[in-house]
Specification:
Length: about 425
Protein backbone atom coordinates (compact mmCIF):
# COMPACT_ATOMS: atom_id res chain seq x y z
CA UNK A 1 0.00 0.00 0.00
CA UNK A 2 2.81 2.43 0.88
CA UNK A 3 4.60 1.58 -2.38
CA UNK A 4 1.38 2.18 -4.36
CA UNK A 5 0.86 5.58 -2.72
CA UNK A 6 4.44 6.58 -3.43
CA UNK A 7 4.11 5.65 -7.12
CA UNK A 8 0.65 7.16 -7.62
CA UNK A 9 0.14 9.54 -10.51
CA UNK A 10 0.64 13.09 -9.19
CA UNK A 11 -2.26 15.54 -9.15
CA UNK A 12 -1.98 19.32 -9.30
CA UNK A 13 -3.65 21.68 -6.86
CA UNK A 14 -3.34 22.90 -3.30
CA UNK A 15 -6.06 20.66 -1.91
CA UNK A 16 -4.73 17.54 -3.63
CA UNK A 17 -1.24 18.16 -2.18
CA UNK A 18 -2.18 19.74 1.15
CA UNK A 19 0.03 17.52 3.32
CA UNK A 20 3.22 17.99 1.30
CA UNK A 21 2.50 21.67 0.74
CA UNK A 22 2.04 22.24 4.50
CA UNK A 23 5.26 20.37 5.23
CA UNK A 24 7.17 22.57 2.76
CA UNK A 25 5.67 25.68 4.39
CA UNK A 26 7.07 24.47 7.72
CA UNK A 27 10.49 23.81 6.17
CA UNK A 28 10.57 27.29 4.67
CA UNK A 29 9.72 28.79 8.05
CA UNK A 30 12.88 27.14 9.36
CA UNK A 31 14.82 28.61 6.40
CA UNK A 32 13.63 32.09 7.40
CA UNK A 33 14.40 31.44 11.04
CA UNK A 34 18.08 30.93 10.18
CA UNK A 35 18.25 34.54 8.96
CA UNK A 36 16.15 35.96 11.78
CA UNK A 37 18.37 34.54 14.52
CA UNK A 38 21.18 36.92 13.53
CA UNK A 39 19.58 40.04 12.04
CA UNK A 40 19.06 41.94 15.29
CA UNK A 41 22.24 40.68 16.92
CA UNK A 42 25.07 40.89 14.38
CA UNK A 43 25.16 44.71 13.93
CA UNK A 44 25.29 45.05 17.72
CA UNK A 45 27.94 42.32 17.93
CA UNK A 46 30.02 44.24 15.37
CA UNK A 47 30.07 47.44 17.40
CA UNK A 48 30.00 46.13 20.98
CA UNK A 49 32.24 43.03 20.86
CA UNK A 50 34.46 43.58 17.81
CA UNK A 51 34.70 47.38 18.03
CA UNK A 52 33.84 48.03 14.36
CA UNK A 53 32.76 51.54 13.47
CA UNK A 54 32.83 51.98 9.69
CA UNK A 55 29.38 51.21 8.28
CA UNK A 56 30.78 49.86 5.01
CA UNK A 57 32.97 47.38 6.86
CA UNK A 58 30.16 46.31 9.17
CA UNK A 59 27.90 45.64 6.19
CA UNK A 60 30.41 43.23 4.60
CA UNK A 61 28.58 40.30 6.15
CA UNK A 62 25.34 41.34 4.41
CA UNK A 63 27.17 41.67 1.09
CA UNK A 64 28.83 38.26 1.55
CA UNK A 65 25.45 36.72 2.34
CA UNK A 66 23.74 38.36 -0.64
CA UNK A 67 26.35 37.44 -3.25
CA UNK A 68 26.63 33.81 -2.18
CA UNK A 69 22.85 33.45 -1.90
CA UNK A 70 22.44 34.88 -5.40
CA UNK A 71 24.96 32.41 -6.84
CA UNK A 72 23.36 29.53 -4.92
CA UNK A 73 19.95 30.48 -6.36
CA UNK A 74 21.27 29.94 -9.88
CA UNK A 75 22.66 26.51 -9.05
CA UNK A 76 19.50 25.60 -7.13
CA UNK A 77 17.41 26.18 -10.24
CA UNK A 78 19.79 24.39 -12.59
CA UNK A 79 20.34 21.38 -10.31
CA UNK A 80 16.67 21.01 -9.37
CA UNK A 81 15.68 20.87 -13.05
CA UNK A 82 18.42 18.33 -13.76
CA UNK A 83 18.51 16.08 -10.68
CA UNK A 84 15.31 16.80 -8.77
CA UNK A 85 14.20 19.12 -6.00
CA UNK A 86 14.71 17.06 -2.84
CA UNK A 87 18.48 16.44 -3.20
CA UNK A 88 19.05 20.18 -3.58
CA UNK A 89 16.91 20.90 -0.51
CA UNK A 90 18.85 18.42 1.62
CA UNK A 91 22.21 19.67 0.37
CA UNK A 92 21.25 23.21 1.25
CA UNK A 93 20.53 22.29 4.85
CA UNK A 94 23.90 20.59 5.23
CA UNK A 95 25.56 23.96 4.58
CA UNK A 96 23.65 25.42 7.55
CA UNK A 97 25.06 23.00 10.13
CA UNK A 98 28.24 24.94 11.07
CA UNK A 99 26.72 28.44 10.86
CA UNK A 100 25.41 28.87 14.46
CA UNK A 101 28.60 27.39 15.91
CA UNK A 102 30.79 29.75 13.89
CA UNK A 103 28.79 32.74 15.13
CA UNK A 104 28.95 31.58 18.73
CA UNK A 105 32.70 31.01 18.75
CA UNK A 106 33.83 33.66 16.23
CA UNK A 107 37.09 35.24 17.47
CA UNK A 108 37.01 37.98 14.84
CA UNK A 109 34.74 39.49 12.18
CA UNK A 110 36.20 37.26 9.46
CA UNK A 111 34.44 34.29 11.04
CA UNK A 112 31.13 36.15 10.89
CA UNK A 113 31.64 36.85 7.19
CA UNK A 114 32.54 33.18 6.55
CA UNK A 115 29.44 32.04 8.44
CA UNK A 116 27.30 34.29 6.26
CA UNK A 117 28.85 32.84 3.12
CA UNK A 118 27.66 29.41 4.26
CA UNK A 119 24.31 30.86 5.30
CA UNK A 120 23.91 32.43 1.85
CA UNK A 121 24.47 29.04 0.21
CA UNK A 122 21.98 27.47 2.60
CA UNK A 123 19.35 30.12 1.90
CA UNK A 124 19.80 30.06 -1.87
CA UNK A 125 19.52 26.29 -2.18
CA UNK A 126 16.71 25.72 0.32
CA UNK A 127 14.46 28.74 -0.27
CA UNK A 128 14.66 28.52 -4.06
CA UNK A 129 13.86 24.83 -3.94
CA UNK A 130 10.85 25.19 -1.65
CA UNK A 131 9.52 27.92 -3.98
CA UNK A 132 9.85 25.66 -7.03
CA UNK A 133 8.36 22.68 -5.20
CA UNK A 134 5.26 24.64 -4.18
CA UNK A 135 4.76 25.97 -7.72
CA UNK A 136 5.11 22.37 -8.93
CA UNK A 137 2.40 21.17 -6.56
CA UNK A 138 -0.31 23.78 -7.06
CA UNK A 139 -0.36 24.19 -10.85
CA UNK A 140 -1.39 27.34 -12.69
CA UNK A 141 -4.52 28.49 -10.86
CA UNK A 142 -3.15 29.18 -7.36
CA UNK A 143 0.42 30.40 -7.88
CA UNK A 144 -0.13 33.68 -6.06
CA UNK A 145 -1.71 31.96 -3.06
CA UNK A 146 1.08 29.38 -2.98
CA UNK A 147 3.79 32.03 -3.05
CA UNK A 148 1.97 34.10 -0.44
CA UNK A 149 1.89 31.15 1.94
CA UNK A 150 5.53 30.28 1.22
CA UNK A 151 6.87 33.78 1.73
CA UNK A 152 4.60 34.44 4.71
CA UNK A 153 6.05 31.42 6.46
CA UNK A 154 9.63 32.38 5.66
CA UNK A 155 9.46 36.04 6.59
CA UNK A 156 7.08 35.50 9.46
CA UNK A 157 9.79 33.25 10.88
CA UNK A 158 12.37 35.97 10.23
CA UNK A 159 10.25 38.34 12.32
CA UNK A 160 9.61 35.90 15.17
CA UNK A 161 13.25 34.83 15.30
CA UNK A 162 14.46 38.45 15.18
CA UNK A 163 12.20 39.31 18.09
CA UNK A 164 13.18 36.22 20.05
CA UNK A 165 16.88 36.74 19.35
CA UNK A 166 16.62 40.35 20.53
CA UNK A 167 14.94 39.17 23.73
CA UNK A 168 17.56 36.49 24.33
CA UNK A 169 20.36 38.99 23.68
CA UNK A 170 18.85 41.42 26.17
CA UNK A 171 18.42 38.73 28.83
CA UNK A 172 21.52 36.58 28.36
CA UNK A 173 23.96 38.58 26.23
CA UNK A 174 24.79 38.66 22.54
CA UNK A 175 26.38 35.19 22.60
CA UNK A 176 25.63 32.29 22.66
CA UNK A 177 21.89 32.35 23.47
CA UNK A 178 20.47 33.91 20.25
CA UNK A 179 22.36 31.48 18.02
CA UNK A 180 21.15 28.37 19.81
CA UNK A 181 17.95 28.95 17.82
CA UNK A 182 19.86 28.15 14.64
CA UNK A 183 21.10 24.82 15.97
CA UNK A 184 17.52 23.77 16.69
CA UNK A 185 16.20 24.99 13.32
CA UNK A 186 18.88 23.09 11.39
CA UNK A 187 18.35 19.80 13.20
CA UNK A 188 14.58 19.93 12.73
CA UNK A 189 14.85 20.90 9.06
CA UNK A 190 17.21 18.03 8.25
CA UNK A 191 14.76 15.60 9.87
CA UNK A 192 11.73 16.93 7.98
CA UNK A 193 13.50 17.28 4.62
CA UNK A 194 15.25 13.94 4.76
CA UNK A 195 12.40 11.77 6.04
CA UNK A 196 9.08 13.37 5.12
CA UNK A 197 9.51 15.66 2.07
CA UNK A 198 8.83 13.97 -1.28
CA UNK A 199 10.13 14.81 -4.77
CA UNK A 200 7.85 17.12 -6.81
CA UNK A 201 9.48 17.05 -10.24
CA UNK A 202 6.81 14.63 -11.40
CA UNK A 203 4.21 17.34 -10.85
CA UNK A 204 6.16 19.70 -13.11
CA UNK A 205 6.31 17.00 -15.80
CA UNK A 206 2.55 16.54 -15.51
CA UNK A 207 1.93 20.26 -15.95
CA UNK A 208 4.36 20.33 -18.89
CA UNK A 209 2.38 17.57 -20.67
CA UNK A 210 -0.87 19.48 -20.21
CA UNK A 211 0.60 22.95 -20.80
CA UNK A 212 -1.51 25.05 -23.19
CA UNK A 213 0.00 28.27 -24.64
CA UNK A 214 -1.89 31.49 -24.00
CA UNK A 215 -4.47 32.27 -26.66
CA UNK A 216 -3.24 35.88 -26.92
CA UNK A 217 0.20 34.68 -28.05
CA UNK A 218 2.13 36.67 -25.44
CA UNK A 219 4.42 33.77 -24.52
CA UNK A 220 4.86 32.22 -27.97
CA UNK A 221 8.61 33.00 -27.90
CA UNK A 222 9.05 31.18 -24.57
CA UNK A 223 8.77 27.59 -25.75
CA UNK A 224 9.82 24.39 -23.99
CA UNK A 225 13.33 23.93 -25.39
CA UNK A 226 15.09 27.18 -24.48
CA UNK A 227 18.77 26.83 -23.57
CA UNK A 228 20.16 27.99 -20.24
CA UNK A 229 21.71 31.02 -21.89
CA UNK A 230 18.43 31.96 -23.57
CA UNK A 231 16.59 31.70 -20.26
CA UNK A 232 19.20 33.95 -18.63
CA UNK A 233 18.86 36.61 -21.35
CA UNK A 234 15.06 36.54 -21.31
CA UNK A 235 14.78 36.72 -17.53
CA UNK A 236 17.42 39.44 -17.21
CA UNK A 237 16.90 41.75 -20.19
CA UNK A 238 14.57 40.88 -23.04
CA UNK A 239 11.29 39.50 -21.75
CA UNK A 240 9.37 42.53 -20.40
CA UNK A 241 7.61 40.82 -17.49
CA UNK A 242 10.50 38.60 -16.40
CA UNK A 243 13.13 41.34 -16.63
CA UNK A 244 10.88 43.87 -14.87
CA UNK A 245 10.33 41.33 -12.12
CA UNK A 246 14.10 40.85 -11.80
CA UNK A 247 14.62 44.61 -11.43
CA UNK A 248 11.83 44.99 -8.88
CA UNK A 249 13.14 42.01 -6.94
CA UNK A 250 16.65 43.47 -6.86
CA UNK A 251 15.46 46.85 -5.51
CA UNK A 252 13.10 45.19 -3.04
CA UNK A 253 15.96 43.19 -1.53
CA UNK A 254 18.24 46.22 -1.74
CA UNK A 255 15.82 47.75 0.75
CA UNK A 256 15.92 44.61 2.88
CA UNK A 257 19.73 44.43 2.79
CA UNK A 258 20.01 48.09 3.74
CA UNK A 259 17.48 47.59 6.55
CA UNK A 260 19.32 44.50 7.80
CA UNK A 261 22.65 46.28 8.15
CA UNK A 262 21.53 49.83 8.85
CA UNK A 263 18.23 49.90 10.75
CA UNK A 264 19.58 48.50 14.06
CA UNK A 265 22.36 51.13 13.98
CA UNK A 266 19.91 53.90 13.07
CA UNK A 267 17.54 52.89 15.86
CA UNK A 268 20.46 52.74 18.32
CA UNK A 269 21.19 56.46 17.68
CA UNK A 270 18.10 57.23 19.78
CA UNK A 271 19.48 55.19 22.67
CA UNK A 272 16.88 52.44 22.35
CA UNK A 273 17.60 49.17 24.22
CA UNK A 274 18.20 45.92 22.33
CA UNK A 275 14.68 44.63 22.99
CA UNK A 276 13.07 47.73 21.43
CA UNK A 277 15.45 47.60 18.48
CA UNK A 278 14.47 43.96 18.01
CA UNK A 279 10.79 44.92 18.12
CA UNK A 280 11.25 47.66 15.52
CA UNK A 281 13.13 45.36 13.21
CA UNK A 282 10.59 42.58 13.69
CA UNK A 283 7.71 44.86 12.62
CA UNK A 284 9.07 45.01 9.06
CA UNK A 285 9.25 41.27 8.27
CA UNK A 286 6.28 40.63 10.58
CA UNK A 287 3.88 42.79 8.54
CA UNK A 288 5.60 41.58 5.37
CA UNK A 289 5.10 37.94 6.33
CA UNK A 290 1.49 38.23 7.53
CA UNK A 291 0.47 40.51 4.67
CA UNK A 292 1.50 37.95 2.07
CA UNK A 293 -1.26 35.65 3.27
CA UNK A 294 -3.64 38.13 1.64
CA UNK A 295 -1.62 39.67 -1.18
CA UNK A 296 -0.57 36.41 -2.83
CA UNK A 297 -4.17 35.24 -3.16
CA UNK A 298 -5.26 38.76 -4.15
CA UNK A 299 -2.89 38.67 -7.12
CA UNK A 300 -4.70 35.53 -8.35
CA UNK A 301 -7.89 37.60 -8.53
CA UNK A 302 -6.93 41.12 -9.60
CA UNK A 303 -3.64 40.47 -11.39
CA UNK A 304 0.06 41.01 -10.75
CA UNK A 305 1.21 44.25 -12.37
CA UNK A 306 -0.71 46.90 -10.42
CA UNK A 307 -0.03 45.17 -7.10
CA UNK A 308 3.72 45.24 -7.80
CA UNK A 309 3.68 48.88 -8.93
CA UNK A 310 1.72 50.03 -5.89
CA UNK A 311 3.91 47.96 -3.55
CA UNK A 312 7.14 49.53 -4.80
CA UNK A 313 5.60 53.00 -4.49
CA UNK A 314 4.51 52.25 -0.91
CA UNK A 315 8.03 51.08 -0.07
CA UNK A 316 9.38 54.42 -1.33
CA UNK A 317 6.94 56.31 0.89
CA UNK A 318 7.76 54.12 3.90
CA UNK A 319 11.50 54.69 3.52
CA UNK A 320 10.87 58.43 3.34
CA UNK A 321 8.99 58.23 6.66
CA UNK A 322 11.88 56.32 8.27
CA UNK A 323 14.47 58.74 6.88
CA UNK A 324 12.52 61.74 8.17
CA UNK A 325 12.04 60.30 11.70
CA UNK A 326 14.30 60.18 14.72
CA UNK A 327 12.31 58.25 17.32
CA UNK A 328 10.38 55.07 18.05
CA UNK A 329 6.94 56.20 16.84
CA UNK A 330 8.04 57.40 13.41
CA UNK A 331 10.29 54.40 12.86
CA UNK A 332 7.51 52.01 13.87
CA UNK A 333 5.10 53.62 11.40
CA UNK A 334 7.71 53.48 8.65
CA UNK A 335 8.64 49.85 9.21
CA UNK A 336 4.98 48.82 9.21
CA UNK A 337 4.42 50.60 5.88
CA UNK A 338 7.63 49.10 4.48
CA UNK A 339 6.42 45.64 5.45
CA UNK A 340 3.05 46.26 3.78
CA UNK A 341 4.67 47.44 0.55
CA UNK A 342 6.99 44.44 0.51
CA UNK A 343 4.06 42.07 1.10
CA UNK A 344 2.37 43.45 -2.02
CA UNK A 345 5.47 42.82 -4.12
CA UNK A 346 7.23 39.71 -2.86
CA UNK A 347 4.89 36.77 -3.61
CA UNK A 348 3.50 38.53 -6.67
CA UNK A 349 6.92 38.71 -8.37
CA UNK A 350 7.39 34.97 -7.89
CA UNK A 351 3.90 34.40 -9.31
CA UNK A 352 4.92 36.43 -12.38
CA UNK A 353 7.88 34.11 -12.97
CA UNK A 354 5.60 31.09 -12.55
CA UNK A 355 3.09 32.58 -14.99
CA UNK A 356 5.64 33.22 -17.73
CA UNK A 357 8.16 30.36 -17.38
CA UNK A 358 7.49 27.03 -19.08
CA UNK A 359 7.30 24.11 -16.61
CA UNK A 360 10.30 22.48 -18.34
CA UNK A 361 12.62 25.32 -17.29
CA UNK A 362 10.74 26.71 -14.32
CA UNK A 363 13.47 25.89 -11.81
CA UNK A 364 16.08 27.77 -13.84
CA UNK A 365 13.79 30.76 -14.34
CA UNK A 366 13.06 30.99 -10.62
CA UNK A 367 16.78 30.63 -9.90
CA UNK A 368 17.75 33.44 -12.28
CA UNK A 369 15.06 35.76 -10.93
CA UNK A 370 16.31 35.06 -7.43
CA UNK A 371 19.92 35.70 -8.52
CA UNK A 372 18.96 39.27 -9.41
CA UNK A 373 16.66 39.66 -6.43
CA UNK A 374 19.22 38.51 -3.89
CA UNK A 375 22.04 40.54 -5.38
CA UNK A 376 19.94 43.31 -3.86
CA UNK A 377 21.26 42.28 -0.43
CA UNK A 378 24.78 43.11 -1.52
CA UNK A 379 23.68 46.26 -3.38
CA UNK A 380 21.82 47.47 -0.29
CA UNK A 381 24.77 46.77 1.96
CA UNK A 382 27.19 48.59 -0.36
CA UNK A 383 24.87 51.52 -1.07
CA UNK A 384 23.90 51.80 2.57
CA UNK A 385 27.43 51.52 3.86
CA UNK A 386 29.03 54.00 1.47
CA UNK A 387 26.20 56.54 1.72
CA UNK A 388 26.07 56.27 5.50
CA UNK A 389 29.83 56.77 5.78
CA UNK A 390 29.78 59.80 3.48
CA UNK A 391 26.45 61.46 4.27
CA UNK A 392 24.97 59.75 7.35
CA UNK A 393 22.44 57.04 8.17
CA UNK A 394 19.34 59.04 7.21
CA UNK A 395 20.78 59.89 3.77
CA UNK A 396 21.26 56.19 3.02
CA UNK A 397 17.56 55.58 3.66
CA UNK A 398 16.60 58.53 1.43
CA UNK A 399 18.68 57.03 -1.40
CA UNK A 400 16.77 53.75 -1.14
CA UNK A 401 13.46 55.66 -1.21
CA UNK A 402 14.40 57.32 -4.52
CA UNK A 403 15.43 54.00 -6.08
CA UNK A 404 12.15 52.38 -5.01
CA UNK A 405 10.09 55.17 -6.57
CA UNK A 406 12.04 54.90 -9.84
CA UNK A 407 11.48 51.12 -9.93
CA UNK A 408 7.73 51.58 -9.48
CA UNK A 409 7.77 53.81 -12.56
CA UNK A 410 9.71 51.25 -14.62
CA UNK A 411 7.31 48.42 -13.71
CA UNK A 412 4.30 50.60 -14.55
CA UNK A 413 5.76 51.41 -17.97
CA UNK A 414 7.24 48.03 -19.00
CA UNK A 415 5.54 45.05 -17.35
CA UNK A 416 2.39 43.56 -18.90
CA UNK A 417 -0.23 41.66 -16.94
CA UNK A 418 0.87 38.01 -16.64
CA UNK A 419 -2.09 36.47 -14.81
CA UNK A 420 -3.41 33.83 -17.24
CA UNK A 421 -6.85 34.73 -18.66
CA UNK A 422 -9.66 32.86 -16.96
CA UNK A 423 -11.30 30.20 -19.10
CA UNK A 424 -14.76 28.74 -18.81
Amino acid sequence: MARHARNAVPALGLRANAAQFSLLVAVNALVGGMVGQQQTVLPLLATEEFGLTGFTFIFTYVAAFGVTKAIANYFAGMLSDRYGRKPVLLGGWLFAVPVPLMLIFAPDWGWVIAANVLLGINQGLTWSTTVVMKIDLVGARQRGLAMGLNEAAGYGAVAVSSLLAGYLAGQYGLRPAPFLLGLFYTALALLLSGVFVRETRGHARLESRTHVPRADGIHDHLHEDLTGRQILVQASLREPALSSASLAGLVNNLNFGLAWGLFPLLFATAGLPAAQIGLLFALYPGVWGAGQLATGALSDRIGRKHLITAGMALQAAALAVIAASDGFAGWAAGTVLLGAGTAMVYPTLLAVVGDVAHPAWRGRAVGIYRVWRDLGYAAGAILGGITADLLGLHAAVWAAAVLSAATAAVVAARMYETLPPRTG
